[in-house]
Fold this sequence. Notes:
Helix content is 36%, strand content 21%. It is built from 25 helices and 29 strands. The longest helix has 19 residues, at 450-468. By secondary structure, the chain is an alpha/beta fold. The relative contact order is 0.07. The protein folds into 4 domains: 11-302, NAD(P)-binding Rossmann-like Domain (Rossmann fold), CATH 3.40.50.720; 307-468, Rossmann fold (3-Layer(aba) Sandwich); 471-515 and 596-714, ATP-grasp fold, B domain (D-amino Acid Aminotransferase, Chain A, domain 1, 2-Layer Sandwich); 516-593, ATP-grasp fold, A domain (Dna Ligase, domain 1). The strands form 6 sheets. The protein has a 7-stranded mixed β-sheet with strand order 9-8-11-10-12-13-14, sandwiched between helices.
Amino acid sequence: MLARRNAVYRHADLVRLLNPQSVAVIGASTRAGSFGERVLNNLKKFGGRYYPVNARYEKIGDLTCYPSVAALPEVPDCAVITTPREAVEEIVRECAAAGVGGAIVFASGYAEVGKQDRIEEQARLAEIARSTGLRIVGPNCIGVVNADLGAELTFMSITPIDKPRPRAIGLISQSGALGMTLAQACVRGVSFTHVFTSGNSCDVDMADYVSFLVDEPGCAAIACVFEGMAEPQRLLLAAEMAWKANKPLVVFKMATGEQGAAAAMSHTGSLAGSEAAYRAAFRRAGAILVDDYESLIETAAFFAKAPPMTAPGVAVLATSGGAAIMAADRAEQFGVPLPQPDEGVRAILESHIPEFGAARNPCDVTAQVLAAPGSLQACAEAFFAHPDYAALVVPAAYAIESAAARLPLLSELAAKAGKMTCSLWLSEWRDGPGVKEAEVQSNVALFHSSTSCFQAMAAWWWRTQLRNTAEARAERLSPAKAKAKAAALIRAAGARALTEREAKEVLALYGVPVVGERLTQSAEEATDAAAALGFPVVLKAESPDLPHKTEAGVIKLNLRTADDVCAAFTEIMAKANAVVPRPHVHGVLVQPMVPQGVEMVVGARVDPLFGPLIVVGLGGILVELMKDTALDLAPVGAAQAHALLGQLKGGKLLDGFRNLPNVDRDRLAEIICRVSEFIADQAELVAELDVNPLICNGGRIVAVDALIVPAQRA
């Protein structure tokens, strides 16, 4: 079995393969429709040299056809192998021996069919690549396109992609068909430098493509259609390279199932599935995530053109009141401010807008703009000149030549101000006047929905803030000796889940505040403990076999008298002993009843791909039903902990609700940091963890229950 590859290929490793000056088409053919014939046709506008290779022909058209790679007049940079699978391995070895820079393998029938001999056949191709330095794309791939060179190294009859303009995007897709489909955005004016598909990725994969495009000067942003990888850390490494180069990486993630959480014992484990982990990891690396396939290209095209955002605010300049209202709705949905104009801007708006319009933000200049076209320019100039607005969203409500003619001016005004114009396309005439005109302007971005437009505005501000924030290394909060002491307690539990009492003992070592308690063996002991702790109290069965006590009915709350405690003890033991199979019960815990507060869950899980993760959400018994959680890679610092709290839909509960005071967010963030340090320290020993609920009442925050599930050791 091949060892895992921790690094990514850099530009120099792939330049002969992906920016080739010479190409050999192995399996070239005159047979109409064959892969060899299709590739030769696609290469007719290639700016470099290309050679057919097939021992059956002396010439194909006007081209000399060579019997083998060794017979070529030069060693080609790239070999496109169009033959059936059975011939591929020998050809790959021949290419490696000749010193070819890279090979593209179209043939299918390898690991994707699931047969052991085919899996081994693909592994041999990977081994050739590792041992010889021949870089391989595929097998089972559609190919690649280098638009600047006119190199369409694919068997598809693709839509011709013109030479890239400045601020073009590079496109990467694991799915070949989807990649080439997205590339058809070129017909509406989107500019591409490269289109890369990866197929089975026996050697070159998504991470390598991202790394390559980071160093491509013509590529201003990278669009990526991503399914999944066995080694996603390598893609994150490439994403970090893009971040350091200030090259936006925009990702659409397919295959969003949560199979990784199916067997989880804790609430955290069931909520922190693979999709949440991927999203957290991409965010940590500074990548921009889009929720919809349809938004990918226009979002990437926007970021290829957009300067750093100067302020979070956006102005909407519409010729339709309805379009203005829709824009306002989406701005509110995605938290994009629409600041109202100050007196100076308002005076300009009012002087150009009829009284039945709206001299505000959103601004409705009305259809009167047709009679007075200068009014829209004056209003746009006023918005662009004010520091509150980083972009001007102009809904294109009706596809018409006069509206398209405004776009060069709007681009010029935006460029002068260092800002952006967003043309929000609302017409069902999908390629009507104004589409190409918007795409080709350097400071205009085209969006086909208000949702994608304002999602991009929100992501723009997020990314700008992230770049402006010097990421200080988070100082460790937990005591230095906590790691070793906690590890000893976890090992002592063996393979079983820690009891609540044991779990809280471990977390207390990390400075997590936990409720006090006593373990009792009889109703009399329980009543004595309740009297000592002070009423009201809570009783819970302690058993490593009952991780969810509420569901088992072995917890009783708000007990105010000795008689209540005695009756509760008897009922809890009866219910625990009735469980099948019968659990091992250590006794009954008696705890003081913690006053009402906002219930939070702070949990953690060790993901097989990404390692330790921290999860924060609204807690209590409804945590899995509400699923209002936020996730990040562990450990986190204070800023990241606050950001997690900010992602919660119900986060406003922390700012005071009914008679509850504001929760001390700094203290809560500190506890999140400490739990994240625990899971990062104990990643080899712990599978998952819940602190649920963590009851928050002003500055008093205390964990009243906890669960730690050890990792299964071989």
